Amino acid sequence: MSEATARPLQVRGEVLSTHRVGAYHHLVLVAPGVADQARPGQFVALALGGPDTNLVLRRAFSIYRVSTRGVYGGTVEIIYAARGAGTQWLARQVQHTRVDVVGPLGRPFAPPRDVASATLVGGGYGSAPLFALAEMLQARGCRVDFVLGAASSDRLFGALDAKRMGSIVAVTTDDGSAGTRGRVTDVLPAVIERAGTDVVYACGPMAMLRAVSVVADSYGIPAQCAVEESMACGIGVCMTCVLPVRGDDGITRMVRSCVEGPVFLGDRVRWDDVGTVPADALGAPR
Q1: What is the pTM for the complete model shown?
Q2: Superfamily in which the 9-105 domain is placed by CATH
Q3: What's the rounded Cα separation, in Å, for the pair 124 and 156?
Q4: What is the CATH number of domain 117-226?
Q5: Where are the domains of the chain?
Q6: Sign of the CA dihedral with 114 first, then 159, 189, and 120 last
Q7: pLDDT in tens, 47-102
Q8: Given CB 3.0 to 4.6 Å as the disulfide criterion, which of 40, 50, 80, 204 pairs with 126?
Q9: Distance CA 149, CA 244 (A)
């Protein structure tokens, strides 16, 4: 669905800065070359834990923003929650810490061919890739609207950026601590109707992506969804991130989120079968 992307690079990155943003961490890495090639929706894979770690596998992080200018050369920014051993280690690192970086990886969001009205839907820190996408869309003359959701106000990300960039900004929280109490799909239909949305872009938890895809499909508009599947290698070797997706020919194939994705058309993903190999999938065991 997206045009071919450049070959990923492996570079020895360096922590430029790190700070808290609500419940999350904002990390800026110097990663020349990676920043030059990155496009909205792609991700990087970082080696975490330092030289003596027992964390063998890399960890994938969506790219929030990149900068190809300045005295430090190219920089890559990511937003993450410090939950496991790897991300907790990353949160403790200070300026000048070296981090091995591979990227940019995956297929990015595809911009509309013509000027269009785009609604961008994000959940939690999954919203991060949407702001570079919004800048790209606006540079093409597209209208941009936002629907951002999270469990609570401290887990929202990018609401101020959204207000600066979006024509309409709708915020929801599960507990009602910010915006409308409820889920993004509670307010998405009203935004679609008010904005005259032509395309939906979404990034966040899988359950949210499924629900957003259903809403978009009910309006007959495409939804591009950046899936959040666990990725152990990031380069298509380990096959841990496969999910069932219908092709142009109607045949379901188990595709790799890290290579064929992470961005898929929402109506092509078999959301109810994620985590399984459907019996009718190509190559499924008989």
Answers
A1: 0.93
A2: Translation factors (2.40.30.10)
A3: 5
A4: 3.40.50.80
A5: 9-105, 117-226
A6: positive
A7: 998 877 878 788 999 999 999 876 667 999 999 999 989 999 999 999 999 999 99
A8: 204
A9: 26
